[in-house]
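Materials and Methods. Structural model of DUF2911 domain-containing protein. The 180-residue sequence of DUF2911 domain-containing protein from Flavisolibacter ginsenosidimutans was retrieved and submitted for structure prediction as follows.
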Amino acid sequence: MNNQFKKILLASTLALFAFGATASAQADKSKRASPPDSTNGKIGNATVTINYSSPSMKGRKIWGDLVPYDKAWRAGANEATIFTTDKAIKVEGKTLPAGKYSLFAQPGEKEWQFIFNSQTGQWGIKRSGEANFDPANNVLTVTAKPMKSSAMNERLTYTVNGKGFVLKWENLEVPVKITQ
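The predicted structure was written out as tokens:
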């Protein structure tokens, strides 16, 4: 082989390796700025699981700024947040059939709405910046009251307990009552 061909072959091999490493790093969701997280728990006989991406405050004001009031939000980052229940449950007194749902929220200063939508697997926002769901697929919408959190929460987190789930971020927490 001549030297020119060897150089081209080496350069091509290195380029393919670099491309493969970059693609692999992008596929590793744990390296995202808002890494994936999940929580699950029992509420009565039902197992509830919430899969979401957990953004950080990073010195930003969250409520009413990064996440505007009175606009639907993907309830996390990246892909739409997924709420799964293996049995029918009552969310804030309203029946939600067993299944897998995208969970969206519409924060307000005094009241929040949580929206359970039957479309799943989509990116959480459209290119325009609005939440990525078709209201025709909304299965259930409930209202919850936000409250001041006892501690500052740098990252968005959800917890599932025997009484429902709680969203916590910045200086706020929003409990959502669930029974079976």
